[in-house]
Every structure is written in C-alpha cells, then in structure tokens.
Amino acid sequence: MSELYVVEINGDGEAGYPQNVVAEIGICRVDLGSKDFDTVYSDVVRLDPLDIGKASLDWMSATSGMDPRELYFGSPALELAAHVKSILAGSDVACFDIGEVFGKYLLYEPWDLTHEVSVMPSVSLRIPSNAIPAPGTMLNDRIGYAYSVLCPGDPADVGEGRRAMHLAQMTSQIIIVLRSHGLY
User: Fold this and answer.
1) What percent of the chain has pLDDT over 70?
2) Could you give the CA distance from residue 21 to residue 38 in angstroms, rounded to a whole number?
3) Can you give the pLDDT at residue 136?
4) Nearest to residue 146, comparing CAs of 93, 95, 94, 96?
5) How far apart are CA 23 and CA 46, in angstroms?
6) What's the CA gap between 179 and 184, in Å, rounded?
7) Cα–Cα distances in Å, from 120 out to 1, 7, 99, 184?
C-alpha cells in the first residue's frame, strides 16, 4: 500500500442512518512513501434546511460551524455520492473512527461504499494513550484533540477548522505521524 484516502464527514446529527444524513464530506490522499498528503475533494450535500429541522441545523452549527445557507448551494446527494465513488473505487480508505463515518453513514445509500473500497482500521485505535480524548467526546473534538497532541504547531494548517475537509486534513497528518513511528 503506497497511498490511502482519508474520508471524514459531518452529518446532520449523531445517530447516523436512517435518522441522519451526510451534510458534507472531505477527502485527502496520503502518500505513505513521501509522508505527505493533498486535499482531493470537499463538498456540501444539498439539503433543504426546512426539511431537516432546527435540531439538525443547531447540531451542524455547533459541531462544524456550518451555516444553513450553505446547504442550498450544495450538490445533490446522488451526484455527490457517485463522484465520491469514482474517486475512491478500488482504494484503501481510512478515517479517524470507522464506526462513526462508515458504520453510521457511508455504508448506506446513496453512498454505499461496501464493495467499492478497502476500509483500513480506525486511526483512533492506533494513537498513543496520551492522545486519546475523554470518553463520550464528539468525533470532531476527538480528532482535534488527537491532532493537537500528535501534531503540535498545526502542520496541516487547519487552525480551528471543524469542517469535513479540516477533519480529513487532521486525520491525514495524524496518519503520517503514526506511520513515521511504525504505528499505522
């Protein structure tokens, strides 16, 4: 394996499918040989804020900083899912927490990446104990905490970002650090 793709999402709630949907997705490609990554794809799913409701809008604002107006200008879910499949088909894929990203969202329609990709172990399972956040912490916060411990100085240059692409960039940088220590 010379490269892998890192996929992170922001949903409109934490329960996952069928109660919740993907609101945005971010993808990075990590070159394991050169220990570098590049951003590949990021998009917002077109959702009608009136259809998903106030609780979901509040959730997205609190967890990712998404503005509900962005949802009007997103891409249709079927179109976005088809594009994501074309990028990832036949690839090794990782994310900070497989259960949160794939188990709750990306194994279901319209995404259904079940036979499209090879899913690697959760990055969160490979991080040292000093980088493990408190139990019950939300995914975005867990990624941010592990990143701040393992990647001091913000080498991915995400600042306080909490969008799907920022999460994918932080996870990519964590993989690079873990790989350089023989942990991933």
Assistant:
1) 100
2) 26
3) 85
4) 96
5) 8
6) 5
7) 11, 11, 12, 10
